[in-house]
Specification:
14-stranded mixed beta sheet; eight-stranded mixed beta sheet; mainly beta
Length: about 450
């Protein structure tokens, strides 16, 4: 349908409201405030100055979000009541114009490529489903995509076809005059997350962390010079980015951040007004911490009755705290932490990343950034025997190797235990971290190995 795209002209749109709609180059929004939640949800408050006549009139609000939730719209203004509202989301395009023109008459202009002469014909649009079917006089013709110069002139723009997403509201006003009117609604298409850049100095046991708010607008509408507030959380039952079991929060914090709160959510206001363009990602810094304590660690978790034919790499883990005294000193909104280290030439190199959920201040975190090249663990079921009709005895052997020139400590975890599981024998003392997990902190010598054995008394 390339011929349809060559749109020649549109006649003037009839006036539909009391207020003049600005041209597309101008934005019709007023004083805009946008509150953006995690989970693809935003609250938009748009205060515009309108000339409203007395009695009933229809007011149009172009430049609302294309993903507005019409059922959430409220309109408030002195002496103004809402009678009816309509959201026109069918946007103006050559294809939409042709579809709306089915049953109507249009003007078809064909140009002779050899002479440049134009021939005009009136045609009735019969269909526009995957192609355009026209009735021209007594013949039926399909408008083909054959590359010949063809233009279409429409007599008018359909009333419910808009160049921009538009909300039309019928209001009843007690009196005439110019006054501020605030339009409030919820919208999808706006979201944010946190992104963290951590520069880890292993020798010093410190890291620098910069936190960025990454704001994305896919709502179909720009928000110009908006007062923007970000809320760490997702109202209405969403998980809002909270971490699942087994995530990087090793010990949740109990410290209260100095940030402003709204109910159970933390607020992150942008320091100044900003324009959030459509189909744009914007980043704003909100955290900048230097030389916070951090350390590398190694972890390996074995499932119940887990046996490996080959040694498996331990996880490389970066441990730090979000506490006020010994860490980042802030509540951390959900996002991704990307970790860098300097090489021998002093250049920062990327070494891994991990997602975090909303993290209270004072939490201990362990971010799994990758798998260790030189630190391996092989778990083997050495013996398994039935004690009686209700109990089993299982002996596990764990061999840990270290090819690094320095000794390392590996947190070796055996999972899948039951609440009544008893460790009958073990080569080194363990810590029962939970009903279904035992932990050994194993020191593995440089360029060496360590072995741990344990016998479990279980129901299965």
């Amino acid at each position: 349908m390339r011929a349809v795209i060559l749109l020649s002209a549109l006649l003037a749109t009839p006036a539909l409201a009391q207020n003049t709609i600005p041209p597309p180059s101008q934005n019709a929004q007023g004083d805009v405030a946008v509150t953006i939640y995690n989970g693809d949800l935003a609250l938009v408050q748009d205060t515009r100055q309108l000339n409203i006549p007395a009695g009933r009139s229809r007011q149009e609000f172009p430049d609302v979000s294309a993903q507005i939730r019409p059922e959430t719209v409220t309109l408030s203004g002195a002496g103004v009541g809402v009678v009816e509202q309509n959201f026109d989301f069918d946007l103006l395009s050559p294809q939409a114009l042709m579809q709306k023109a089915v049953g109507e008459t249009i003007t078809l202009i064909r140009t002779n490529p050899a002479t440049g002469a134009e021939v005009r014909e009136r045609a009735r649009v019969l269909a526009a489903n995957g192609g355009v079917v026209l009735q021209i006089g007594d013949r039926i013709e399909v408008l083909r995509d054959d590359g010949l110069p063809v233009r279409v002139i429409f007599d008018r723009v359909p009333e419910n076809l808009r160049a921009r997403p538009t909300l039309s509201v019928t209001v009843q006003s007690e009196g005439a005059g110019r006054r501020p009117v605030t339009l409030t609604y919820l919208s999808a298409g706006l979201g944010w997350s946190a992104d963290y850049v951590a520069l880890f100095d292993e020798n010093a046991g410190r890291m620098d962390v910069q936190g960025w708010i990454t704001l994305t607008n896919n709502s179909g509408t720009p928000f110009v010079n908006a007062n923007t507030l970000l809320v760490a959380g997702a109202p209405g039952g969403g998980n809002g980015g909270y971490q699942r079991r087994g995530g990087p929060i090793r010990q949740p914090g109990t410290e209260t951040s100095d940030r402003e709160r709204l109910g159970d959510f933390y607020l992150y206001p942008l320091p100044e007004r900003t324009t959030i363009a459509n189909r744009q990602t914007k980043q704003v810094s909100f955290l900048d911490v230097h030389a916070t304590p951090a350390a590398r660690a190694y972890e390996y978790r074995n499932g119940w009755l887990g046996t490996t034919e080959q040694p498996m790499s331990a996880n490389t883990v970066l441990r730090f705290s979000s506490s006020r005294e010994q860490g980042l000193g802030d509540a951390l909104p959900a996002g991704t932490v990307r970790v860098y280290q300097r090489d021998a030439r002093g250049n920062p190199q990327f070494v891994g990343e991990s997602a975090i959920g909303h993290t209270p201040m004072g939490s201990d975190l362990g971010l799994t950034t990758g798998q260790a090249f030189d630190v391996k663990v092989r778990a083997v079921v050495e013996r398994r025997e039935r004690v009686n009709s209700e109990r089993w005895r299982t002996t596990m052997r764990y061999t840990l190797t270290n090819a690094r020139p320095q000794p390392v400590t590996v947190d070796l975890m055996q999972g899948g235990l039951w609440g009544d599981t008893r460790i009958a024998e073990e080569s080194m003392a363990s810590e029962r971290r939970s009903a279904d997990e035992a932990l050994w902190r194993v020191l593995v010598p440089a360029n060496g190995e360590a072995v741990v054995t344990a016998t479990f008394d279980t129901r299965f």
